[in-house]
Amino acid sequence: MTATARAIATVILSASLSAGAMPAFADTRAVVELFTSQGCSSCPPADELLAEYAARDDVLALSFPVDYWDYLGWKDTLASHENTERQRAYATARGDRQVYTPQVIVNGVEHMVGSSKAKIDNAIATMDGALSVPITMTAGSDATTVTIGAANNSTPDKGMIWLAMYDDPVTVPIGRGENTGKSITYTNVVRKLRPIAMWKGEEMTVELPKSELVHADVSRCAVILQTELPDGLPGPILGAAAIDYPAM
C-alpha cells in the first residue's frame, strides 16, 4: 500500500461507530462500471442507461471516461488515463484484449456493450449473490467508518479495498468529433480511484478522515472490495457500498 493510502486509512479490527452516525445503504447487489468517451458516437445511449442504474438503490453504477479516442478531434473533458488503464487491466485479466466503448463490466467479471440493457440485466440477475461480503459506510462528525464483513466458505479470503470518489451528473456540450453539437449528461463520473487497505478475510473497519474525502470536484464516495489477481489485475468484486457527502 502506498504512503498516501496509509495516511488516509486507519485500519481497526473491531468496529466502533460514533454516536449519531448515519449509515449508507449496504444492500448493493451489483457494481456496474461503464467505460465511455465523449468522442464515441455509440456512447450516449449507454450514458443514459447508466443513469437509470444509478437511480437504483441496489446497484452501484459508475462512469469511467477513457482517453484513447481523444485523437478523433475532441479531447474528453472528463477522461483520465487511469480509467483507460483500469479498462485495459480488466481485458488483460480476462485474456481477451476486448477494450472498446461503450463497455460495461458487471461485478468485475462479465463485460458487454454498455447500451445493452437486456445483457446487463441478465448479468446482474445471474450473478445475484456474488457480492457476498457485507460492507457498510457510516458517517460521523470527523470521519466515515467503513466496516467490511468476514469471508464465508465460498468467498476468497483476500482482496483490495478501493475508494471511488465521484460527482453529481454533469452535462457537457461537445464541440467537435463524432458527437459535435450534442450536450451529453454523465452520471457518477469517477474522479479518483485509489486503494486504501488490504482485506484478509476477517471482519475489519477502516476510518476515512472527513478532510480526505471532501473535495470540490466530488460529492459522493463508494468503497469496493475486489479480488486482486496475479500482477495486481482486477478480479471479481466481493462487496460495495456508497455514501453521499451531505450525510457526512
Task: Write up this protein.
- Keywords: Signal.
- This is DUF1223 domain-containing protein.
- It comes from Bauldia litoralis.
- Residues 1-26 form the signal peptide.
- The protein has one domain (30-244): Immunoglobulins (Immunoglobulin-like), CATH 2.60.40.
- The chain is built from five helices and 15 strands.
- It has helices spanning 3-8, 44-54, 81-94, 117-126, 210-213, and strands spanning 10-12, 22-23, 30-36, 59-65, 103-106, 110-113, 135-139, 143-148, 159-166, 170-173, 183-186, 190-199, 204-209, 220-228, 234-244.
- The chain has a five-stranded antiparallel β-sheet with strand order 1-13-8-7-2. The chain has a four-stranded mixed β-sheet with strand order 4-3-5-6. It has a four-stranded antiparallel β-sheet with strand order 12-9-14-15.
- The longest helix has 14 residues, at 81-94.
- It is globular.
- The two termini are 26 Å apart.
- Mean pLDDT is 88; it is low at 1-23.
Short summary:
This protein is an alpha+beta fold and about 250 residues long. Helix content is about 20%, strand content about 35%.
Strand/helix succession: HEEEHEHEEHEEEEEEEHEE
What's the alpha carbon Rg, rounded to whole Å?
A: 18 Å
- Which structural class matches the secondary elements? alpha+beta
CATH H-tier superfamily: Immunoglobulins
Number of strands: 15
Contiguous runs where pLDDT drops below 50 for at least 5 residues? 1-23
Per the CATH scheme, the topology name is: Immunoglobulin-like
Mass-distribution shape = globular
- Quaternary structure state of the chains depicted: single chain
CATH architecture designation: Sandwich
Tell me roughly what share of residues is in helical segments. 10-25%
Q: Give the count of structural domains.
A: 1
Number of helices: 5
Order the strands across the largest sheet as they lie in space. Answer: 1-13-8-7-2
Mean pLDDT: 88
Largest sheet: 5 strands, antiparallel
Distance N to C terminus = 26 Å
Pfam families: DUF1223
InterPro entries: DUF1223, Thioredoxin-like_sf
Keywords: Signal
Protein name: DUF1223 domain-containing protein
